[in-house]
Amino acid sequence: MNPLKGIISVPRRTMVAFALVAVLMGLAIVGQSYLIVDIVDRIFLKEADFKSILPMMWLLLGLLLLRVATTYWNGRLGAKTAADIKQELREKLLAKYTRTPVASAISGQSGEKVSVLLDAVDEMDSYYSQYLPKVVQTTIVPLMVLVVAFSYDLYTGLIMMITAPFIPLFYIIIGIMTQKRADAQLEKMTAFSGKFLDTLQGITTLKLFGRARREEQAIEASSHAFRDATLAVLKIAFLSSLMLEFISMLSMGLIALEVSLRLILFQSITFFPAFLMLVIAPEYYLALKEMGAAFHTGRGSVAAAKRIASELSAEERTVAFGKLELEADGPPEIRLDDVSFTYGESFALRDIEMKIRPYEKVALIGKSGAGKSTVLQLLAGLADPLSGEVRIDGRKRHDYAEASWFKRLSYISQHPYLYAGTLADNIAIGDLRTSSRAEIEEAGRRAGLAELASTLPEGYDTLIGEGGRGLSGGEKQRVALARAFLKQPDIILFDEPTTGLDVRTERLLREAMEELGRRATVVTVAHRLHTVRKVDQIFLLDAGSLIDAGTHEELLGRSEAYREMTKVGGGVAK
Amino acid sequence: MKELESVLKEMVSEKRDIILSVLFGVLAGITAVGLFAASGFLISKAALLPPIQTLAVLIAVQKLSSLTRAVSRYAERYYSHRATFTILGNLRTSFYRRLEPLAPGIFNKYRSGDLLARIVGDVESLQHTFLRVLYPPIVLVLVFLCTIFFVSFFAIEVSLLLLAGAVLTGFIIPALFAVRERRLARTVRARRAVLSTEVTELLQGYRDLKIYQQLDEKERLLAEASAAYVSEQRRRELDGVRNLSVNTFATFIISWLVLGLGAWLVTEGELDGVFLALLVMTSLTVFENAAPMAILPGFFEDSRHAAVRLEEVVSEERVQAESGMPEGPVSIVFNDVSFNYPGEARPAVSGVSFELPAGSKTAIVGASGSGKSTLLQLLLLMYPATGITINGTDARRIDQESLYAIANVALQQNHFFYGTIRDNLLLAGETADKDLLAALEAVALGHLTLEDQVFEKGENLSGGERQRLAIARLLLREARIWLLDEPTSSVDPVTEAQIHEQLLAAVKDGTFVLVSHRLQGLERMDQILVMDEGRLVESGTYAELMDARGYFYEMKQIEQAVLA
User: Fold this and answer.
1) What predicted TM-score, i.e. pTM, was given to this entire model?
2) Which stretches in chain B have pLDDT values below 70?
3) Element (H, E) at A329
4) Which among A39, A71, A466 has the least Cβ separation from residue B244?
5) Which CATH architecture describes the domain A418-488?
6) Closest Cα to residue B495, out of B454, B549, B447?
7) Which of A373, B139, B326, B494 is spaced 20 to 30 Å from B262 by Cα?
């Protein structure tokens, strides 16, 4: 029933508490029935006076209070369990996502992940807050009622015992029947219910074609078709509750018949046990019916549980780091030593050898999917190779301390992420404590942001929204540059834009990279001819393999693939 | 309650199913009370050893009522759910009817893509308004009225007690909790929004956070946000539990009082003892109808919130344009046009002036964010702006739809519907199959058949295929003006050139505007408008601009330097 088995479990203590509450609830139900019957018996048959039943009335009140208290306690316990589990699940998912940077950085389906972390986890709530306590309760309470029935009237007990299995049995049979029918209808139902969203999404297109008004009828028709399809499935479910109702009614009727016949015809039972049976019988069947309903709730969480489980069991690749401090004077030498890497099926690198000397300018080129970005991830320490080593000054990269490594590195991507915060915050990314305002503004100026800042209402203190709304592609690129100017790194990994930015940003980008490169090693995933012409080394990748390396002139001389790639804009590069 | 007016309106139109479900709901409620009252009476009577016929009659009544109850319950469920889904359908159409005139401008206002999913979700949550919010009190009142009437034959005091109980559990307690619920639900939503932002930032900004060593801090913030959200959810849940407990307790107290009062009346000789069990059973059963009232506040708040949000979306006033599209070939003049998107401080375009003579072919170029798509949106009358005249008429006075009727438009995102290729092409109007096939051929989509499936949003097509299909759709339609926003950005250069050829042939002497990121194939344009940071920096023919060695020339240089 629960795909999260083995991933997360409810503490034993909680289960014991649920059971305890259920027992108390059972006691309250039985005691309450007992007292009501006794009071009626005394007043009605034994003609007792009102005062003599008063103590019992108070006791009854106490039991009613106990019943309410157990309901409350049960709910409270459920809410707490659900809250704990949800928090634990989120922490587990979070740890998973942050430990598996490759998945986050490369496959990057963040929408689905956000949805799992928010919605799927929330959907698990009812499983722990309602289903679980209900299952415990509906197992224990009917048993207690059954014991009472047997101890007062054997025949009632027998009727209860014989009829009880029919209810779950019926649920199972009907469940299987509806499932088939539901599966058959499901496709129809999703198609019909999707129509509304589909139309809304297409409303602009529809309007442009002058068709929007006509769609109203289509929405109506599909909504009604959806209704009919859903009702066809629901009808079976309703029929099953009808049958269950019949079973429990029939059973209660049997009990009533049995006790009244014995009361009048055979006079083998007195009013007290007979009435008691009548009062507790509904409690018994109610609990059984609730069990069925609870299963329904439980089934609703299964899909969510599956999504969570599949995220948590996804392949995990952690990136290892050590304790060694990186030496502080200038950029280190970086080597890729026979490095291979796979991720899923589509991202692969095979036996890559690269040596990048301090202050060298290096370009990675190749068709999309050749593995350029993956090399950049490996160089950055955002992923570990599957085999082979990344060596820094001759030592394995994972011998170095994480902070010491990342402190020296900047990664300038095509799509830098902007956080909800001020422009200054975004330039400093958390470096606010160590950099002064003057330094931030200087970095902004060097990255060509001064003019932008002056047009913003609050300058560097203007909030730039979630996801950097309000900034153009060129401006985002400048923010990324400003980050690097502030950090003054020894190693710069640069993912050059694939398409042209505005003329000014292009020029700025070129100048800024030149300036940044004066005191750093620069590795560029290159998309510009002028970039590859200037670098010290070009690594040409194809389908995950390094097929050639050298300077622009060398490669032009010997590589057909390189000549093909640099034959840009119709003309041949010199 | 005012907020739920729209749902109420839809309900009124579904009278038949609603009346039937109320009828059966009340019948089921009453027969349940009757059934348990009869059991109580039966057993009491039996204790007095009556003749067997009396017993037989009583048992028969009991069986009959249990049968009626079960069947009524079934009918109630059927009709109430039918009503619910019909109301959902009606809500959708009526909402669509109000939204349709506001599109497409409204979607630009809500730039976040989840607006639509939210609308769909909100409309869906309104479907519960009937079954979970409006229906239970109606049934409650009717069942209680009948029961109180019935009980008053035995003991008027007890019936008054039941009345008090009904008011307490059916109205006072739910109303109290509904007030709290609104506050709690608001906090839960606020906390959720915080968590959602944190999660998105962490996942999307992962790389930068890691390199700047801010990941641990962010993780901590996220765990905190999650804990805050979970604890608010828990508070809301606990309030629900409290509501249920208080409500249950109230019903117990009433039944307890009924028992005490009944017992007292019997000892005083004002009530026959044989009816005592009947009264107690009646009281215990009738309050079952108050149970749905405990979950009502939650549903009420959800419905209210959904209704308010939907109202916000469609309440926008739309200025009715008085004029249709002027006759004849289309010429457009922009005279010092500036425009800010709502809520944005910086202008998206400023001080732009140009002319599009009738039958001219124009390209608008510039970097991303330079304002070129904004110009197209203004041309499409998606926003009102001063300074635009179409065939001499102020654009603000022209009805959008009359322009669309003579325009062929391709946006960056074109929608495709779930269905076949044919369905999607026929959006352009009734056309013979051979023309449809010719259009596919013209955009190099000859490998597709008309029966091929198109998934929702065209997800099974590549970006380039979607763009070509959108153009095919346009080729089937006559138009006086063509407005295309990067229609071939995902198509390879060779195919692109071929499609441009087809397009220009189809446009004939229509006015043609092409927004383009790429600078290839613009040699045949009558004029090229060059945009940068919202301003028109240059304009002229391809040859003129290249000769001028200005902004366009430099853009061209950059483009030529981009590696294949």
Assistant:
1) 0.83
2) 1, 107-114, 317-320, 564
3) none
4) A71
5) 3-Layer(aba) Sandwich (3.40)
6) B447
7) B139
